Amino acid sequence: MTRTEVRVPRALALYGVIGVSGVLLDYLVFLLLLGLDALHPQVANAISTTVGITNNFLLNALLNFRTRDRVAVRFLRFYAVGLTGLALTFAVLQVFSGWLGLDPRWVKGGALPVVVFLQYTVNKKWSFG
Fold this sequence. Notes:
Elements: H1 10-35, H2 41-64, H3 71-99, H4 104-127
C-alpha cells in the first residue's frame, strides 16, 4: 500500500492561520466590549467584526498574497465581503439572541465558522484573485 500525501498549498494554510487570528481578535474584542456593559451586542458585533476584517486584510495583503497593487480596491472588496459576513452574523444574533433569548456570546461563537467559510470562498476568488 502506498501512502498518499495531501499537501495544502502554502497560501491556503496561511490564509487559515490569518483567518483564525482575525476570528479570535473579533471574538475577544466582542467579549471585551460586551463586558463594558455600555454597548448593545449589535454595536459590539459591528466594531469587533471591523477590527477582525481589517486585521485579516492587512495580514493577507502583506504576508500571504503579497499584493501591493490596487490596495484600495482590494480592501474595499475584502471589506464588502466582511460586511456580508457582518450582515449574516447580525441576522443570526437577532434571531437567536434577540428573539429566542440565547446568550449572544454563544450565538456569535456558533455563527463564526459558517461566516468564515463563506468569506474565504469569496475572498479567494474576488478580493485576491
